[in-house]
Amino acid sequence: MATRVIPPRILKKFRYNTATKPLNAVHPSLTPAIAPPAFFEKPPSVAAEVALGMDDAERLFASVSTGRLLRSASVLHATAVGPMVDLGMWVMKSPLLQSGLPRDLVMSVTRETFFSHFCAGEDAAGASKSIGVLNDAGLRSMLVYGVEDAHDNEGCDQNLNGFLHTVTVSKSLPPSSVSFVIVKITAICPMALLERLSDLLRWQQKDPSFVLPWKQDSLPIFAETSPLYHTQKRPEPLTPEEESDLQLANQRLLQLCQKCEEANIPLLVDAEHTTVQPAIDYFTYAASIKHNKASNPIVFGTIQTYLKDAKDRLLLTTNAAEKMGVPMGFKLVRGAYMSTERKLAQSFGHASPIHNTIQDTHNCFNDCASFMLEKVANGPDSVVLATHNIESGKLAVAKAHELGVGKVKQKLEFAQLYGMSEALSYGLSNAGFQVSKYMPFGPVEMVMPYLLRRAEENRGLLAASGFDRQLMRKELGRRLKAAVF
């Protein structure tokens, strides 16, 4: 997960912040409570509360060494201090990192602190060790080669080799320790082409008579509520060179899908900002039609539920796939790019595509989760519930118990970012569910933007990581007392 680039032609007149903004609920106490939304007709059952055991720090962190717990607590506490985060971000963005001793010093400190906490390693070998530790603790891994935003075919080809190697490494690890390989379409298709494809797809949505001769069989990308303001005028057709580049991008994705199919490891496509998301969905759904067979989806898409049209698009896509006999896999997330999306919409004179309130976002995530759990219980579809929100976790657990959806391979997976929401991850795992951690790897320089966003996401004493920090303090205090007395 690296810095996303929204094209200058769209961001002409305003500055933007590429940092991920947290949309998870704040948990300042050990007993967070949010009223359940409408789609879940009743609050989490007592059984779900007991099963997760979110107040039992000793059990939650039983598999975590004291050294690792100390480091985790220290990093999360450091990112909770706003001025410290501001200073760190300034240093990592400053000319000090261009060369020489200051750069070496900053990289060394970063490697031993934030990088070690939020990333799996600098290469496949390092990532394998981190995966092994998690696997011993009962957690699985989503392996993420941390590159994005290629701008030419040479860069796309290099990135593809990295993704292919990631599949090879995953296959060599203990069975089921890697739940998914993650890909960014922005890394295997030039960004400018993704922007052009998205413009063309949006215009076809406005004008169904608009012909796209290069378009493959796909699934619905837009709903009636989807924003189309990005494309202000009829776009020109793809040039012969662009069509050639599109064919190369299709071949890269095909090669990666085939590699995952052979390894029997699902490929999960990450979501991006709305400027290029239509093209990403197009690639994802075209690949799903080709590769998702029987009850074993190989290609998974991502729905960002902070978008107002998220549920409508999810319903349209899954219904169309069901009619075609294509099993679908989706990862549900709340989303990133909140600041940029709002500024972008404002620059076009349109309302933000993001829900007006955080509770609306929670409701949308939980509605979509409930819908997908029903699909999992009654059909061939699969879902990854990627959330740091404890209440959403409890609601989903209660719904899964109600439907009889348990630990079924690749049908239901919970997920959190590596180094974040550890208590929720272990709680869900202890309750018998499959849980994965999103684990980027690569050289420190390559994943630096990802680290900046994690620091930004955790800043402030009331950030989403506050619940984990309190539990870690509680467990460290317990271990200290046990050692002394």
TrEMBL record:
It catalyses: L-proline + a quinone = (S)-1-pyrroline-5-carboxylate + a quinol + H(+). The keyword Transcription regulation does not apply. GO terms for biological process: L-proline catabolic process to L-glutamate. GO terms for cellular component: mitochondrion. One of its GO terms (molecular function) is FAD binding. SUPFAM superfamilies: FAD-linked oxidoreductase (SSF51730). It comes from the Eukaryota. Residues 138-460 form the Proline dehydrogenase domain. Its cofactor is FAD. Its EC number is 1.5.5.2. InterPro entries: FAD-linked_oxidoreductase-like, Proline_DH_dom, Proline_oxidase. Keywords: FAD, Flavoprotein, Oxidoreductase, Proline metabolism. Belongs to the proline oxidase family. Converts proline to delta-1-pyrroline-5-carboxylate. This is Proline dehydrogenase.
